[in-house]
Amino acid sequence: MPRRSATADPSGDDQRRERNEALPGAVLWDMDGTLIDTEPYWISEERALVESVGGVWTHEHGLALVGNDLLVSARYIIDHSSIAMTPLEVVEHLLDGVVARVSEHTPWRPGARELLDGLIAAGVPCVLVTMSWRRLADVFIGTLPAGTFAHVITGDEVEHGKPHPEPYRAASRALGVPLSECLAIEDSPPGVASAVSAGVRTLAVPHAVPVPEMAGAVQVPTLEGLRPGDLQALFG
Q: Which strands make up the sheet holding 26-29, listed edge to edge?
């Protein structure tokens, strides 16, 4: 989905070009913890699963999994409990619970809905780049107007999950916009590392866990009050 064309009104070419240069070529959005506050859902489902076999799941365990590839998280859960399940079975079990919760209530992060809507209104294509699997992403997307996301990259559709750069490279290829023209929005260390290593300017909005300073990333405490035209300026 390209940005709005400036060819319909030649007399306004310069004005439109100036406006478009103030906007990123595309915005690549993380989902859990960035757009919607689902981390408490994941931690609650993890705890319930581990406690169902008599184990103990601490808040620190839950935070250690924030932003990870789901199969990586599943292996961590197995290693720290007596669960007799395969990693795939653990992921599917957790997804059942989180999908049910999101279906009942979608908890938006402050400012995220407004910024997403503003980008769409400004003609900036958006891509969802999430380590959640397709069936959870589809539930979230189903709450939005059709076409909100030009493409969706999910954790079960890439070979290497975050912090590997593959998810963001896949988003760039699908959209046909160079990584250097994109901007990513992330909340976790694995997510920020994934985007930065792919060569995407990254806006880090730490939420459940701190995000270390990284070259190529700029941190803000919240998306609240940010408008599409503010994003480029954050990177000078």
A: 151-153, 126-129, 26-29, 182-186, 201-204, 217-219
* Cis peptide bond prior to 2, omega within 30° of 0: no
Alpha helices in 122-185 (DSSP H): 134-141, 166-175
The 10s digit of each residue's pLDDT in 43-82 is 999 999 999 999 999 989 988 898 889 999 999 999 999 9
Radius of gyration of the chain measured on its C-alpha atoms: 18
Indicate if the pLDDT at residue 9 is higher than 80.
Answer: no
pLDDT digits (tens, 9 = 90+) for 134-179: 999 999 999 999 999 999 999 999 999 999 999 999 999 999 999 9
CATH of 39-104, one of 3.30.420.40, 2.60.40.1670, 1.10.150.240, 3.40.50.1370: 1.10.150.240
Instruction: Show contacts of 80-86: CB within 8 Å, 24+ apart.
Output: 80/50, 80/55, 81/49, 81/50, 81/53, 81/55, 81/57, 82/53, 82/54, 82/55, 83/49, 83/50, 83/53, 83/55, 84/53
